[in-house]
Design goal:
Layout: H1 3-11, H2 18-22, E1 30-32, E2 38-41, H3 51-63, E3 70-73, H4 91-118, E4 126-128, E5 131-134, E6 137-141, H5 142-145, H6 179-183, E7 199-204, E8 212-213, H7 219-222, E9 227-233, E10 236-241, H8 244-257, E11 260-261, H9 272-278, E12 281-286, E13 302-310, E14 322-328, E15 332-337, H10 342-353, E16 360-364, H11 376-387, E17 395-398, H12 401-407, E18 414-422, E19 428-438, E20 490-498, H13 513-530, H14 535-541, H15 546-558, E21 573-581, E22 588-597, E23 601-611, H16 618-637, E24 666-671, H17 687-702, E25 708-709, H18 713-724, H19 732-735
């Protein structure tokens, strides 16, 4: 038995993962197929992150079968366990540990059944690639004795005594399931799905969020060739056609005739930071009582302050959202969706269309890359609404690029202020961190009314809701990673949730951790440099957590940190470091960025050290860490959602650029040993530290702190001008943007 694995689960014996508490029956998760395969059901969905591959590895090692026998079934609301949403870097903790416990108990039940049937000592029965063996004699396979084992029983718990201890697949870099199909262009993405009798739908979007549609005569298009139906409900208009280009053309023609009533509801973009701080807010005060200080601190040698701004950011999926829906026998609905949370989506669709849950089924089909609450749920609503007028024919709806960029929920803007009282050596005597911004959660299935976009524009609309922040114990929102991991006192940790912000915000990868880690790590660097301390050593001096110290030392060695200024400083090259433990309880990640400044800011290389505990698939971890770092580089340098007084105005790649392949930095990742430590997710921990490392590298190169994201050449110029005017460190900075 793997001793490290035993250590982990002895400490948590009897404690079940959340997904298993909500779905306790073994047969909700695993069944033995007659053809010698193990069918595995999970509520977590494949989004390109390789989760089904990692889960298959867990199942194979725990059941002691060949991984070729494991079939990961696509998530479906009719037969898959309800695991809420695939998000938050939680799939391994929730689904992986659930399957580990389920498979351990299933293996034990089969062993006991074999022992009873053949009068054997159960402790002498082993499993070798799915076959039960005792004293070198075979007593059958899982599939041969499956009829004698009832899996419709609740899981009883999990500890090291029931673990297989085999590591044939765990810790191995297996090729992701479906990779060959992706390379050959045969992977079944939702956009390529074809259903018998399929029609195509398009929905007309208003010019701005609060626009109201006036009178409009639709009769001239009702009988157009290829048009199946045109539907209007309030400010919602949809076209169903035999072919996609017809639906697209007719919606464009209707748009040119439509007359909307609009009004201003947003500030000038240049006033964003002050607008966030002056709006109506709900306030949450966090505490860290073990290191609590009084404020102000008497005898402090000085105070470091910083005001930071993260702009609104978009999902910017390469493939626009897509869905299919079909009305069945007047009351039933079947939907095909790439949603991150098909059970939650089903709950909202039942509310929106007043359908009994037993009559609605959602099948997950993989879509384009998804990093939070994008348009997948909204386009599913569009398809479901239109299919009710398609005479029981399936309707395919694909959003346009403009729909995707301007109507998906966006990642909230954040305004952050941090103040730190320090002693004469730069030691922090008190730390105060305040964040202002809209909520980070407006996902379906969590409110009394639907959060689906189309339902807000009907004649009798459901109320448009403001995003919330989940409780910190559930991951938080704007307050995610607001509590620093460093060992210094904090007297004020405050989160102001801006309500009624007029823009639809929701979860985008890493949530508030991205802005908070950028701000924290920026000020940590400022304190270290202002006190004549090395930024790496300053961090190490303020951390007792050995895993934190290990990733920092590892990334420093990887990047040759202590040699970075040998031969003097190059004015156009800088190196910076960033660190965080995701959600203060997840993966540890440290990043060193090397940037070069010419006519633009280029990240030449990222060095990353990460500790995710027990590693299921090393290549999968590296890919997720690299993907997060690349996206963080794009956010840190290029991405900013623009708006006028009415709404967003970025409808194409020219107005909302993302990182290009030619701008992707070289990345080197080191995974820390994880034996004996429970596994955690790798999808999101690299984002905040990467942005912070880039910001600190820019400061290293220029000697100027840029506190606005993205760090564009224009932002650098403003920071230089502000520093020259002596207004870079306080609220005046907000007025100088």
């Amino acid at each position: 038995m793997n001793p490290g694995f035993a250590t982990v689960h002895q400490a948590a014996a009897g404690q079940l993962p959340l997904s298993l508490i909500n779905n306790p029956c073994l047969d909700h998760w695993v069944s033995m197929a007659e053809n010698g395969c193990v069918d595995v059901y999970t509520g977590k969905v494949e989004l390109g992150q390789g989760i089904v591959t990692a889960l298959a590895q867990i199942v194979a090692d725990e059941l002691l079968v060949d991984i070729a026998a494991v079939r990961m079934q696509p998530a479906n609301t009719r037969y898959s366990p309800n695991e809420s949403v695939t998000s938050g870097s939680l799939s391994i903790q929730h689904s992986g540990l659930s399957l580990r416990a389920v498979c351990a108990q299933i293996r034990l039940l089969f062993i006991q059944a074999v022992a009873r049937k053949f009068h054997l000592d159960a402790s002498m029965v082993t499993v070798i690639n799915g076959e039960f063996v005792s004293n070198s004699r075979s007593y059958g396979t899982y599939w041969q004795i499956a009829d004698g084992v009832d899996l419709h029983v609740a899981v009883t718990g999990f500890d090291a005594g029931t673990a297989s201890g085999r590591r044939d697949y765990l810790g191995t870099s297996l090729r992701p399931i479906g990779l060959e199909l992706k390379v050959s262009g045969q992977y079944p993405f939702i956009h390529d799905l074809t259903l018998p009798g399929m029609t195509h739908g398009r929905v007309l979007r208003p010019p701005s969020p609060y626009a109201v549609l006036g009178d409009l005569d639709l009769s001239e298009w009702q009988n157009s060739p290829g048009v199946v139906s045109i539907v209007r409900d309030g400010s919602l208009i949809g076209v169903i056609a035999e072919q996609e280009h017809i639906a697209e053309r007719v919606v464009g023609q209707i748009a040119r005739k439509a007359v909307w009533t609009e009004h201003d509801s947003l500030p000038l973009q240049s006033d964003l930071a002050l607008w966030l701080r002056s709006g109506k807010c709900e306030t949450t005060v966090l505490s860290r009582p073990s290191v609590h200080a009084k404020t102000p601190v008497a005898g402090a040698a000085g105070t470091f302050t910083g005001d930071f701004l993260k702009s609104f950011t978009k999902h910017a999926s390469i493939g626009p959202s897509c869905a299919y829906a079909q009305a069945i026998a007047d009351t039933g609905l079947k939907i095909w969706s790439h949603s991150q949370g098909i059970h939650n989506l089903k709950a909202d669709l039942c509310l929106a269309f007043d359908r009994d849950a037993a009559l609605v089924e959602i099948q997950h089909v993989p879509g384009s890359g998804c990093y939070g609450h994008n348009g997948a749920d909204d386009v599913a609503y569009d398809a479901a609404w239109l299919c009710l007028h398609a005479h029981e024919r399936p309707v395919r709806v694909q959003w346009s690029r403009s729909d995707e960029l301007n109507w998906s929920p966006v990642g909230p803007a954040m305004s952050v202020r941090i103040e730190a009282d320090v002693d004469e050596n730069g030691g922090v005597l008190d730390w105060r961190h305040t964040v202002w911004g809209p909520g980070h959660s407006l996902r379906p299935g969590r409110a009394g009314t639907p959060t689906l976009l189309g339902s807000w524009y009907k004649e009798s609309p459901h109320p448009a809701l403001s995003a919330i922040n989940a409780p910190l114990e559930s991951g938080g929102g704007a307050d995610r990673n607001l509590v620093p991991l460093y060992d210094f006192p904090c007297s004020a940790l405050v989160c102001h949730r801006v309500v009624d912000c007029s823009l639809r915000t929701s979860a985008l990868r890493a949530l508030g951790a991205f802005g908070n880690v950028f701000a924290i790590e920026s000020l940590i660097d400022d304190i270290a440099i202002g006190s004549g301390r090395d930024p790496l050593q300053y961090r190490l001096d303020n951390l007792r957590d050995e895993r934190a110290r290990s990733v920092l030392n590892a990334v420093a060695k990887l990047a040759a940190w202590h040699e970075r200024h040998d031969g003097g400083r190059a004015g156009d090259v800088g190196m910076g470091i960033g660190f965080a433990r995701y959600k203060t309880e997840g993966a540890y990640c440290a990043v060193v960025a090397k940037v070069k400044l010419t006519h633009e800011i280029r990240v030449e290389k990222l060095f990353i050290a990460v500790d995710v505990g027990e590693v299921i698939n090393p290549d999968g971890v590296v890919q997720q860490i690299e993907g997060g770092a690349i996206q963080a580089t794009s956010w840190a340098l290029y991405e900013e959602a623009h708006f006028d007084r009415k709404g967003f105005i970025d409808g194409d790649w020219e107005s909302y650029p993302i990182i290009k392949f030619s701008q992707v930095p070289d990345i080197e990742v080191e995974i820390m040993p994880g034996a004996g430590v429970a596994p955690v997710g790798a999808g999101e921990p690299s984002l905040g530290p990467t942005a912070a490392a880039i910001g600190n590298a820019v400061r290293d190169a220029l000697g100027v702190r840029v506190r606005i994201l993205p760090i564009t050449p224009e932002a650098v110029i403003r920071a230089v001008d502000a520093q020259a005017a002596g207004i870079d460190n306080n609220v005046e900075f907000l007025r100088a943007m």
